[in-house]
């Protein structure tokens, strides 16, 4: 089953027509369940038009693209940091052996 996405104007129209022709008839006319209708009515009575505004997909495409790019860049940065840490550890080990060898030669 596919869900219909209603605009603010459509919701207001359905609420207004329910006062004229009745709730059951308005729900039948616009193919809206009574549960959905009463949910809209409750939100409208509580917050007015702001309660009926569409809350899904509030992020713009540009913002979503920027967030995705940010995620990718953070991953690359963390991979580079891990790689640098491994290189530092290897450098410490190799320099540690060289320092120990020089120190042992000096003490002889």
Automatic annotation (TrEMBL):
Matching Pfam families: HTH_Tnp_1 (PF01527)
Q: Which InterPro entries match?
A: Homeodomain-like_sf, Transposase_8, Transposase_8_domain, WH-like_DNA-bd_sf
Coiled-coil region(s) at which residues? Answer: 56-83
Key word Cytoplasm present: no
Q: Which keywords are on file for this protein?
A: Coiled coil
Instruction: Specify whether GTP-binding is a keyword of the entry.
Output: no
Query: PANTHER family, from UniProt?
Result: LOW CALCIUM RESPONSE LOCUS PROTEIN S, TRANSPOSASE
Protein name, entry field: Transposase
Q: What is the lineage of its organism?
A: Bacteria, Pseudomonadati, Bacteroidota, Flavobacteriia, Flavobacteriales
